[in-house]
Amino acid sequence: MVTGQHIGMTQTIQTPIGYKQLEALNKGVHRFALAQEASFAFCAGLNALPLTVSEFPVACHHYPIVFASPNGKDDFGAAVVTGLKTVQNLFCGTDGKWRANVYVPAYVRCYPFCLASIVEEGKTRLNKLVCIAKEAVVPGGLELFTESGDPTPLWREREKLLQEYENDTARTAEMCRTLKSMGLFKDFAIQATTPGKELINLAGMYRVDEAAIAQLGASQFRKLIEQGWLEKIYAHIISLRNFQALVDCS
Questions:
Q1: Using one digit for the tens of pLDDT, what is the confidence trace for 94-128?
Q2: Dist CA 34 CA 141 (whole Å)
């Protein structure tokens, strides 16, 4: 879900999905950098977007929530499915506006900012870099920092969102590792015919296997409850009903 962006002889920025080119956030250069009106056009052609576990209870009312892995073996993550075709987002138009009265994932709301990982000599650095998408920088835009370099309320709000998203992402990874270790993931695909008679085949997704949950031991089941993950699991399972709505809109 990331691509590499070379920044030095041995350094590469891991660019989040949908972002094109990143710049390290600079108090001087980016003092006035944010557009008056938010645009989410960066993800208008993405049919899946990252989701954190804390968002499951709200997102499950609007999107199918699935799990994915680069190789099907490790590093599982959660995502909302926004379209059934390779280049399709049924919730965001090319004008950058999100569908009204629909939950906007935190990943989308963080844009154009992100906390980017830096790979140096093949190793990921512990500290991440606060970046802004170069294509979203607007000269003379909304003020992020004062003349003296202090953060404005606008930047404090964005910075808080970034940190919350980072913490929730780590929590999501923890949950995914646990679900995998318990053998709860099961791969699945969607096959359907749209109202326009187009055949849809979407694969490469994973869901929590309800039959496998029934086979868990008492200590494993207790862990899911104590961590608050059982609620999230059933939000995910319920959300899969939303695939039909995507089919109807395709």
A1: 899 999 999 999 999 999 999 998 888 777 777 88
A2: 5
Phi and psi at 53, nearest 5°, equal -60, -30
pLDDT surpassing 90 at residue 17: yes
Looking at the predicted structure, is the pLDDT value of residue 34 above 60? yes
Residues constituting the chain: 250
Q: Name the percent of the chain in helix, strand, coil, to the closest 5.
A: 35, 30, 40
* 169-174 mean pLDDT: 96
The CB-based long-range contact list for 160-168 (8 Å cut-off, 24+ gap) reads 161/106, 161/109, 161/110, 162/110, 162/113, 162/114, 162/115, 162/130, 163/115, 164/106, 165/52, 165/106, 165/107, 165/110, 165/115, 166/115, 166/128, 168/52, 168/53, 168/54, 168/55, 168/106
pLDDT reported for residue 10:
63
Residue type, 114: C
How would you classify the pairing of strands 48-50 and 77-81? antiparallel
User: Hey, what are 48's tokens?
Assistant: 């899946």
User: Between vectors from CA 170 to CA 114 and to CA 215, what angle results, nearest 5°?
Assistant: 140
